Amino acid sequence: MPDKDLSTKVQEQLVKDFKENSDVFEKVYDFYYEMILRYLLKRTMSAEIAYDLTADTFIRAFESFHKFKWTGVSIKVWLYRIAINCLKNQRRNPRISPLTEEFEGHESLVQDVKEELSELDKTLYGDDELSKLSDAMATLNPDYQNILSLYYFSDMSQDDIGKAINRSTSAVKSMMHRAMSNLRQILSPNLI
After folding, report:
1. 1-97 in CATH: which number?
2. Given this model, what pLDDT does residue 180 score?
């Protein structure tokens, strides 16, 4: 399911209105919250950490929104960039708990995440051994993890991924190719 985005006109208006009334950030939060939470849940496989990182993402976004200047980079891409940075900071001080069904009020989201990860595992490995894919992705360079997660889990375009991680589109394509090659080698070392 591709992540939707607010129209350019609406985004520009939110940025403008925020300067006079910070309450308009609630619209940003309401629209993008689940999108960012899903991404972080898939990256961390931990309900607790995903909630914490999502909160951190929106706190940082709120604190910086007055500095946001409309340059054609969507609010969505900007929020993903913040989420990636929060995730990098969290990795320096990890405390991972397993993804469980007890995801207070978001049980269907947990199931959707597990199904999406399982589908990606089937595509890459040929079966539904979710733990193998999760373990393999965890061994990749963090930049590769980010690119694969944004592309496959958040359905972001390579151009938007480049904007989110401050790389060119051609660099993203190259990194995706290397990441997929590394992932295939990890999952099926005897076939390569």
Report:
1. 1.10.1740.10
2. 87
Closest alpha carbon to 120 in 43, 189, 36, 5 = 43
The residue with greater pLDDT, 131 or 184, is 184
- Residue for token pair 């399982």: 118
> What fold does the segment set 105-192 form as a domain?
Arc Repressor Mutant, subunit A (1.10.10)
Name every residue whose Cβ is closer than 8 Å to that of residue 81 and which is 6 or more positions away in sequence.
Answer: 163, 164, 165, 166
The whole-number average pLDDT for the span 1-21 is 84
pTM (predicted TM-score): 0.66
Closest listed residue to residue 8, CA positions, set 68, 72, 69, 64: 72
Tokens 């930049």 correspond to: 143
Q: What is the pLDDT of residue 67?
A: 87
